[in-house]
Amino acid sequence: MNFMKMDLRLVTLALLMTACASETSDKEDASVDESTELQPISEPLVSDIFTADPSAHVFDGKIYVYPSHDIDAGIPNDDLGTQYAMRDYRVLSMDEVGGPVTDHGVALDIEDVPWAGRQMWAPDAAKKDGKYYLYFPVKDKEDIFHIGVAESDSPTGPFTAEPTPIEGTISMDPAVFEDTDGSYYLYYGGIWGGQLQYYKNGKFEKSEEQPAADEPALLPKMAKLGADMKTLAEEPRDIKILNADGELFKSGETDERFFEAAWVHKYNDKYYLSYSTGDTHKIVYATGDNPYGPFTYQGVVLNPVQGWTNHHSIVEFKGKWYLFYHDTQISGQNHLRNVKVTELHYNEDGSIKTIDPYK
Ligand code: FUB
User: pLDDT tens digits, residue range 133-154?
Assistant: First the structure.
């Protein structure tokens, strides 16, 4: 592992164009062309560990970031992300954006999750009535992803995991949205390594086959959380993501269709669902009038970053909006990422100004 900061010139237009143009399922580490002068717009929040998939929240007047904790497990790259073999979660915090970042150490270890098999992927967190809840996807001992929940008296943990996954959950990348009326909603799902395709016909079938390009794309799931924050209050449902004509995106519409990393926030009474397009490497967003959707596609939040994955969160802090995201600036390797933050701006009509991660 190389923890030394890379020469910023190594972040190249050639690399980004390669990632954008990729229509294949190639998750090999991209080679780096030193010929251009693009600079990242922000620096890693921490550089002594690898972190990814940052879910940021403001709790008790501070920003807490719940990332994946990337490690090099020596597993070769494949299209199902087996190389992302993370084994614990750590929490980061900061009093100000741009100020010192504290790493609070291990908040939950895979050894302390009785049902877990492998791969602790992108987590999220919520606070209710003075308790803190960590939501995390991990494969069970049969290698099937579910979403677990763990509780703590502190936003930084340690968290105590429930003995079983949240009943009714499948797949990965949980995100919890607290609405202004005090309701909490859980959003989740991801295709390819995220296993949503196992449920495409309404029943479980362990098949990696995706819907055909002209069939409707697989959709993320959501449900209201129960008052205990550890159960679903209702049957999970698909989140409809529509084009401007009110039609569901097709599986082949890879610039817009859902892949993974759902996040929901509210701005001026509109609900914004943002997510990664996966193999086209963008964070895009769609808006709706309620937490259930449907959501109508609007555009791009974040253009491709260095590295295969793109994953984010959006949070308001002290009157400004921020995008937390990751890239591979430190390592140059897809599975060893570093979390970052930059300010996010809206246009007057509520649309989001697209962010270019390198300039
Ligand atoms: O970190 C593992 C996986 O990579 C996440 O769950 C996905 O969203 C992608 O970022």
Answer: 999 999 999 999 999 999 999 9
| One domain, residues 19 and 84 | no
Residue 245 belongs to some domain of the structure: yes
Please report, for the domain that includes residue 67, its CATH number.
2.115.10.20
- Give the whole-angstrom CA distance, residue 144 versus residue 206: 9
Would 289 be classed as within a structural domain?
Answer: no
Q: Is residue 84 within 6 Å of ligand 1 at its C-beta?
A: yes
Residues 26 and 132 in one domain: no
What ligand 1 atom has the least distance to the C-alpha of 172?
A: 6
* Tally of CB atoms within 10 A around 20: 13
Give tens-digit pLDDT for 217-244: 999 999 999 999 999 999 999 999 999 9
Q: Which domain holds residue 15?
A: 1-30
How much distance in Å is there from the Cα of 349 to the middle of ligand 1?
31
Is 347 domain-assigned? no
Residues 10-67 have pLDDT tens digits of 344 334 433 433 333 334 444 334 456 899 999 999 999 999 999 999 999 999 999 9
33 catalytically annotated: no
- Total structural domains in the chain? 2
Residue whose Cα lies nearest atom 9 of ligand 1: it is: 309
Is the pLDDT score of 356 beyond 90?
A: yes
Choose among 243, 301, 311: nearest CA to 70.
311
How many Å apart are CA 113 and CA 148, to the nearest integer? Answer: 9
Q: Which residue type is seen at 46?
A: V
Instruction: Kindly tell me the burial class for residue 141, based on how many C-beta atoms sit within 10 Å of its own C-beta (0-12, 13-18, 19 or more).
Output: exposed
Over residues 104-132, the mean pLDDT reads 98
Backbone angles phi, psi at 195, to 5 degrees: 75, 10
- Count of CB atoms situated within 10 Å of the CB of 228: 12
| Residue whose structure tokens are 């010192």 | 100
Q: How confident is the model at residue 201 (pLDDT cuts 50, 70, 90)?
A: confident
Is residue 268 domain-resident? no
pLDDT at 10: 36
Alpha carbon of 189 to ligand 1 centroid (Å): 11
Q: First vs last Cα of the chain: how many Å apart?
A: 27
Which neighbouring-strand residues pair with 88? 109
In this structure, how many other beta carbons lie within 10 angstroms of the beta carbon of residue 152? Answer: 18
